[in-house]
Amino acid sequence: MRVAIAGAGAVGRSIAGELLENGHEVLLIDKAPTAISVERVPQAEWLLADACEITSLDEAALQRCNVVIAATGDDKVNLVVSLLAKTEYGVPRVVARVNNPKNEWLFNESWGVDVAVSTPRLMSALVEEAVSVGDLVRLLRFSHGDANLVELTLPEESALAGTQVGDVEWPQDTSLVTIIRGTRVLTPSRDDSLEPGDELLFVAAQAREQQLEDLLSVRRDIG
Question: pTM of the entire structure?
């Protein structure tokens, strides 16, 4: 897979290093000469250019990329790069870094963004996830379809504790994608049971999040 990363700062270089280790082809783009540190990520291609300029993106052959990551420290730049990547070059997957959570609402399909990653929000979510049981925590927002990756740790008092996955009437527009049980990562099947302490990861429409939380967290009266 070929990936272009706009922004060769600490974030961009770290992403590049991870992708290269996983066998992907990476191009780092930055307009600041001081950011071009080939020796730090020698396996990557480097381009000294302004990623907001069409001529620069032509030189980068962005149309050959499977993914573009807008990872600069400037939200305006990340939005422009995302829009150009999607509309001018038809890049299938565009991921954008959100630096200021107040700008998060802009990072959607209108600006060509498939996935928006807000570092402050993600850090906050991970803190919440570590201390919250029975509360739905939003980990990641997907622009297309208004869907989110959400997590809930099943509490002891949940009505669904001990219930098989296939017997649960899940809310519409939600999908249980992973069960984390201790050190194990389980791909849910209909016969798997839900156990107290399970970390459940869902892709869910935002409008269904409260319904999902109510279903998992509340022990309903019987009779």
Answer: 0.64
